[in-house]
Amino acid sequence: MVVHMVLRRPVPAPAPQLRVIWQGVQSGDAPEARWTDGSGQEHRWAGTRGVPWLLRDELRQGEEWKVNLRGIPADVVALSLRLSASVERTVGVLVQPLSGDPNSGVLHPGVTLAPGATVELMVMHRAGDGWQVIALND
Edge-to-edge strand order for the sheet containing 78-84? Predict the structure, then answer.
């Protein structure tokens, strides 16, 4: 069963390898991942350059990413997913296991974006030996 997330309440990541499905993304929008490494350097990724643990799935319609949590460098403690929208509308994010039961995913409750604003929708962060996922609307 897909878990419908509550804002700011962490849930365990459904698997170490994830499919991130951006819901409601349209042409002109800008989904982006951000993280800071151990040296304090901030990184941004929008699907255009190679990051071995973060890939854009170009074989599917819409915007889908693949995230290998085990492949994230040890000095990265969190991965933030953000979206800038070209027009006002409600969007969300579905996170599913890359393999296995797709119904064991977690679903962002949705947020209405203002045109031109960038909103942090989700953060994945290390928690002990695993990862947690938190839905946001910041």
Answer: 11-12, 130-135, 118-127, 78-84, 30-36, 42-45
